[in-house]
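[retry 2/3] MFS transporter: previous attempt timed out, resubmitting with same input.
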Amino acid sequence: MRAFRHRNYRLWAGADIVSVTGTWMQVLGVNWLILKATGSATSVGLSLVLTALPTMILGMWGGSLADRLPSRPVVVASQIAQAALAATLAMIALKDPGNITAVYGVALAGGVVTALGGPALGRFGAEVVPPEDLPNALSLGSVLNSAGRILGMSLAGVLMPVAGMPGLFMINAVSFFAVLAALAMMRRSEMYVLERASGESRGIRAGVAFVLRTPWLLTIFGLALVLGSMGRNYQVTMASMSAGPLAAGAGGYALLSTVFAVGTVIGGIAAAGRPQLTMRLLLATAIVTSLAQAFSGVMPVLSLFAMVMLPIAAGGVVIDTTIGSRIQLDTPEKMRGRILAVNGIVGAAAGAIGGPVLGWMCDNLGPRNALEISGLITAGAALLAAVALARINGVSVAGLLGLPSLPVRRVAAAVEEI
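[retry 2/3] MFS transporter: success.
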């Protein structure tokens, strides 16, 4: 765990798990608040859309902001804003828990803060470790996020009857100050400050031009969109399998959710233990995970389905971490914020597309067929990505699978064209 050798990263990791835990406590509280007030799962889904929509619209502005300004002030401002929004939710839940319009307003405002501040947060996270330890830091971040999710949802279930939803929201508000405290305690002399954009390389247009003129990035983002939409929305397919063919009910769905969360922790640990996160690892994991997804559709009982879910969840984290590592290490530092913003936009779009599509497939084709068809689609996308990347680099597919990364000279040439 090389990243833990650095004091600044240890502070960042500690603050991260506290903040993530608080965030998931709030997520559970908001979902329950809306469901209790409206009795509609669709209303809960609307809050998720309102949270994700600003990233798709404003994400590139956030990325441009991150590349122009020092990361620390932007991170501080975003954490204070998120704390204020959590406190606002607490007041809403305390005074008028039925005011769903106000809850939607806070969800939308939170999405705006995430869209504008998220790229700076990701850029700052890359500055607390040297470049050679960034893949390890990203892998450990996946573990911490998964652990924080499990801890947050567990604590929310225990504390909700005692503190109520206002209490959950106030705990989340306080959790953001853990990040602010960590920032205050970090040693500036031990930061690895990234180059900021200047001149013609600044702005949204330059960022979009760079992505469009970098074929391997387009290929990776295209693969991420397909994998994220057709291969990641397991909250939909697991629920459909539990309620339908497996006849496991709510208890079975809870079990599958727990197994999936454990799998994400395993995947993060596996990625953190690797010296490099390579293109070979990305493509191989994408293919294997996709075939496992197709195979999961024929599992006859809950226990066997859960066993297949475990490596699928682990593979998903390895894929996400490897993509995050490659798009940061193989692109210029001054483009980092905008590249992270595009990655965030792709993730948000995948969720917005995949949830309804997989839901329609489960309703009309059956959950087993939905898993089998979507698994084959994602496997095909991974194979096409391998062929495309091989052509871009002028090597065979077999040769590509042996490459640890893509030639940086191609990146430099793309930057010069902007």
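[retry 2/3] MFS transporter: The two ends are 38 Å apart (CA to CA).
[retry 2/3] clearing retry counter.
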